[in-house]
Amino acid sequence: MQGNNQQQAYDRGITIFSPDGRLYQVEYAREAVERGSASVGVRTPDGVVLAADRQTRSSLIEEESIEKIHSIDTHVGVATAGHVADARQLVDFARQQAQVEQLRYEEPIGVETLTKRVTDHIQQYTQTGGARPFGVSLIVGGVENGRPRLFEADPSGTPYEWKAIAVGRGQQDIQGHLEEEYDEDSDLAGGIDLALEALAVEADDLDAGSVHVSTVDVESEQFETLSTEQISDHLAELDIGGESDE
After folding, report:
1. Alpha-carbon dihedral sign for residues 185, 186, 191, 193
2. Alpha-carbon span 110 to 115, nearest angstrom
3. What is the pLDDT of residue 244?
């Protein structure tokens, strides 16, 4: 019984390490991410691609109301997986940081700088009593000084830079596909195709209405969202999924 009580203390206390150096609440937050629909980021020499599966749990939900990819500034966006409300809080924080940088220095915030500020904020919630970690992972992609950058921010508050990354449900299988098919010399259209193929690994019924794709290309350094028609054309070329109902 005493052993069980000790286990519960490590289990419930966010500020308490277990004897083997684990923070259980952070691990539970990662499990929350694994239960969220998948998001993918791909970096190419021409820019970055963010793609997300936004399939609904009910036919009565308006698909447009499901936000998985967010514009943070004109040159950077974020894709999320996990608790939607937690993601919304972090997106708002990231937007505030981008605005502060613009007002203070009159220049856009760097993608790496933005990611580290967000992860510093996340990390505070892993060592604060009376709080819990954010149950969400972010993929931060954008262009910085003419160079495409792609980062992951996980519930522990650790930033990782990637060439291609998947978070959310089916992460291991999707990441495996990315590792096998990633081409460092691919153009932006190739990056979009790879991201859609990766999402299709987990979502068999992927269609243009259930996926969200955005890009930031090096030439314009502008965050842009693909239309349903553009996504449908890519899916048709790849022979993936069915037709959109829209």
Report:
1. negative
2. 9
3. 46
- The pTM score is 0.92
- Partnered with residue 73 across adjacent β-strands are 76
At 42, is the pLDDT very low, low, confident or very high (cuts 50, 70, 90)? very high
May I ask the CATH architecture of the domain 42-57+78-238? 4-Layer Sandwich (3.60)
> 3-state DSSP call for residue 103?
helix
How many angstroms separate the CA atoms of 192 and 151, rounded? 17
Ranges assigned E (strand) in 83-169: 136-144, 147-153, 159-161, 164-167
144-195 tens-digit pLDDT: 999 999 999 999 999 999 999 999 999 999 999 999 999 999 999 999 999 9
Which helix (H) or strand (E) element contains residue 50?
strand 47-53
Domain ranges of the chain: 42-57+78-238
| Structure-block tokens of residue 77 | 């966006």
Across 128-165, b (16+ Cβ under 10 Å) vs e yields eeeeebbbbbbbbbbbbeeebbbbbbbbbbebeebebb
Q: From CA 98, how far away is CA 85, in angstroms rounded?
A: 20
Q: Report the C-alpha gap between 146 and 20 in whole angstroms.
A: 44
**Would you call 207 helix, strand, or coil by DSSP?**
coil
CA 7 to chain CA centroid, Å, is: 32
Cα–Cα distance for residue pair 38/19, rounded to 1 Å: 33
